[in-house]
């Protein structure tokens, strides 16, 4: 009997990395669909004729409805489960991505970006909940870092292929071809993915420490709390603050770096790809490395609190040099500094996401990630308006990079005050 149990656990162990691979590829697609607008912005600005402020408002349309999508899918994921809710999200955002080819005005782009935001809002609540269901606590940050690195791989593939597609076939065809990739993933997801089946999953989670297992078991008894219960918890607010202050910085990199390279470094569509590929290749190392650091510290006997916060503090400090990137004249030195900051963000994000499953029961993880993600999107909306106004009035990026440099240390300090020991939230009341 014992041999059979061990065999089942090993099967679950192998399968959970297959699950991680599915999450990784979904996140690659998510970010390719998200980034294509920024990459084609110089061409679209010429064809459509939008201003800096109008482009900022198109970004805001995505950000605002992404916030709504995160909040709604956070509850949908806890309600329908990860298999159906992830498929629904992928279908919505893939159709929205392809619909970009059918519009030709500022309002049209705002509308399809809004639909894209609603669909893409399902990716992270579903992925984080899936990770919590399939991975023991000591592996979650690493697994999150791996699938979250899909954002960077998507950001590498996007500048490598999208400008070439646009030059060869036109920008409308580029939107259709990239959006259609999600439909392929959808078919693979339905064939390969299954929900955890009690026995195999539980045997695998026995790898966790007694303390972590007891925390999860105690939290599970609380059921799936509503938003009203969650919003009253300090642990929820720690996650909210972390997302609100740092997500807008990542969105700034994602949507405005191509424009920064074009406007500040004089790079056109045919030459902009290589610097972006290098930046996001560096970022991939940060995503996996940030998750690896806290997972390694946990395996060494550190507490969850110490391991996660040490990794996050390291990442927050690595962002600081970007405050001076506007004063750097050499292109590749500037690329290295931006790459370090973006890598540090992804390492930070891998650990920040994992704190949701550290502090909340699995049946509440989707909702918590949705609430925090909505806060990050609201921050993105506000920061996008600031970016548009600053660039419209001054044409200078240095103040925006300085804000991004300080955001992580401020977020870290507030999170530590709210959750000094990062103990599991008590949701029984």
UniProtKB/TrEMBL annotation:
InterPro entries xref list: MFS (IPR011701), MFS_dom (IPR020846), MFS_Na/Anion_cotransporter (IPR050382), MFS_trans_sf (IPR036259)
One Pfam entry name: MFS_1
Major facilitator superfamily (MFS) profile domain segment(s): 19-423
Membrane-protein topology: Multi-pass membrane protein
GO MF: hexuronate transmembrane transporter activity
Subcellular location: Membrane
GO cellular component, one term: membrane
UniProt entry keywords in alphabetical sequence: Membrane, Transmembrane, Transmembrane helix
Transmembrane segments: 15-32, 58-77, 83-103, 146-167, 173-192, 237-257, 277-298, 310-326, 332-353, 365-391, 397-418
UniProt-listed CDD domains: MFS_ExuT_GudP_like
The name this protein goes by in its record: Hexuronate transporter
Originating species: Caballeronia grimmiae
Phylogenetic placement of the source organism: Bacteria, Pseudomonadati, Pseudomonadota, Betaproteobacteria, Burkholderiales
């Amino acid at each position: 009997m014992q041999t059979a149990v061990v065999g089942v656990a090993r099967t679950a162990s192998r399968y959970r990395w297959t699950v991680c691979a599915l999450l990784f590829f979904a996140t690659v697609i998510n970010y390719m669909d998200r980034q294509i607008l920024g990459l084609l912005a110089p061409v679209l600005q010429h064809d459509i004729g939008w201003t800096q402020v109008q482009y900022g408002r198109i970004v805001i349309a995505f950000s605002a409805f992404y916030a709504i999508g995160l909040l709604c899918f956070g509850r949908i994921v806890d309600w329908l489960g990860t298999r159906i809710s992830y498929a629904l999200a992928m279908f919505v955002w893939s159709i929205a991505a392809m619909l970009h080819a059918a519009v030709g005005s500022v309002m049209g782009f705002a509308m399809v970006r809004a639909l894209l935001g609603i669909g893409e809002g399902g990716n992270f609540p579903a992925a984080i909940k899936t990770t919590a269901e399939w991975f023991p606590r000591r592996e979650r940050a690493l697994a999150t870092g791996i699938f979250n690195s899909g954002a960077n791989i998507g950001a590498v593939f996007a500048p490598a292929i999208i400008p070439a597609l646009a030059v060869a076939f036109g920008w409308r065809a580029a939107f259709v071809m990239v959006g259609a990739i999600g439909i392929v993933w959808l078919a693979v997801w339905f064939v390969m993915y299954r929900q955890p089946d009690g026995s195999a999953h539980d045997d695998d989670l026995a790898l966790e420490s007694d303390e972590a297992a007891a925390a999860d078991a105690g939290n599970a008894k609380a059921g799936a709390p509503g938003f009203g219960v969650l919003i009253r918890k300090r642990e929820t607010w720690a996650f909210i603050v972390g997302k609100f202050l740092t997500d807008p910085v990542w969105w700034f990199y994602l949507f405005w770096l191509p424009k920064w390279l074009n406007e500040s470094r004089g790079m056109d569509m045919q030459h902009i790809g290589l610097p972006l590929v290098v930046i996001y290749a560096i970022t991939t190392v940060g995503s996996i490395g940030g998750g690896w650091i806290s997972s390694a510290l946990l395996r060494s006997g550190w507490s969850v609190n110490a391991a996660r916060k040490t990794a996050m503090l390291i990442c927050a400090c690595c962002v600081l040099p970007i405050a001076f990137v506007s004063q750097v004249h050499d292109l590749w030195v500037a690329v290295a500094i931006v790459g370090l900051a973006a890598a540090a963000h992804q390492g930070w994000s891998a650990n920040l996401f994992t704190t949701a499953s550290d502090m909340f029961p699995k049946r509440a993880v989707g909702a918590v990630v949705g609430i925090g993600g909505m806060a990050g999107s609201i921050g993105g909306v506000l920061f996008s308006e600031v970016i548009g106004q600053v660039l419209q009035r001054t044409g200078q990026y240095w103040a925006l990079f300085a804000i991004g440099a300080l955001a992580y240390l401020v977020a870290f300090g507030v999170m530590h005050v709210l959750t000094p020991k990062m103990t599991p939230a008590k949701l029984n009341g």
